Amino acid sequence: KVSRAVAIPVIGMGGIKPNVEFQGGYEINFKLGQRNLTSNQISATLERNGVRGATVKVLPEQRLASVTVPETKELEAAGPAALDQLAQKAGFTKEDVAEFTKVGPTVQRETVQNAVLGVVYSALLIVVYLAIRFGVAMGGFFTGLRFSAATIVALLHDTAIVLGMAALVGYLANWQISALFITAVLTMIGFSTHDTIVIFDRVRENLKKLRKEEIETVFNVSINETLGRTILTTGTVMMVVLILFFFGGPVIHDFATALLVGLITGTYSTIYVASPVVLLWHHRVTEKRKKIR
Q1: What is the pTM for the complete model shown?
Q2: Measuring CA to CA, which of 32, 122, 161, 250 is 20 to 30 A from 133?
Q3: Among candidates 143, 134, 113, 101, which has minimal Cα distance to 201?
Q4: CA distances from 34 to 31, 44, 162, 280 (A)
Q5: Where are any strands of DSSP class E within 60-201?
Q6: CATH architecture for residues 25-103
Q7: For domain 106-292, is the CATH number 1.20.1640.10?
Q8: For residue range 138-189, what is the model confidence (pLDDT) as tens digits?
């Protein structure tokens, strides 16, 4: 609750800062050379020269300054000369440019559309698969929907936490999300769903073995039986992600950071979010049936 209470307001405050792949514009890497410039100094220079909304990130190890500037009518009208204008307004020259990327509106729309569709299709396939998988084994499609709905609620929780983390870091440190961030979210969805299915599958087996026990006891036993496996699996993956974070370079930081947070939230949401949702649904259905009788 605390994490969601922090995440949602920061998202609403505009903390999520999409990079040039999502909003369109220019991304330029300038060579710093012997200059000891900070991101604040470069941002101030751009502001003085009339460039608004720019995001600056200094990469000291590479001796580079990464500047992202949204598309404007002035820059669009400048055409090929836009690079010269941006270099001068940032306090650099054209010779200082190490890399230059321009993303137009077509690529921007395609990137956003693919990101949204990827998440939506993933969620729909999860709902259908789990409803059939557990519905066939436990008495019908609608019974299986309890498990698929619980999984989706847990995934929404995980996604909100990861987006909140991105918004918080974006608000405080101008961290931008990229296509790799979406890849990390989809990977997190896969891991979280896998953990949830492992526990729910054990619940399905134990419902047959422990028919005389209360359903809460069945869930408790199932979680305890699979907890060691969940911790070992997640711990192993986290070790790999940490190696990517520390040794993969700045390009992979977005992916590694988002995935690391997603793995942590996905592990506890399987136990503390998905399972309680199934139990609540079960009790609601049971109470309604008692009233009808």
Answers
A1: 0.72
A2: 161
A3: 134
A4: 9, 20, 37, 62
A5: 64-70, 97-103, 176-177
A6: 2-Layer Sandwich (3.30)
A7: yes
A8: 667 777 888 888 988 998 889 888 888 888 887 777 677 777 888 888 888 8
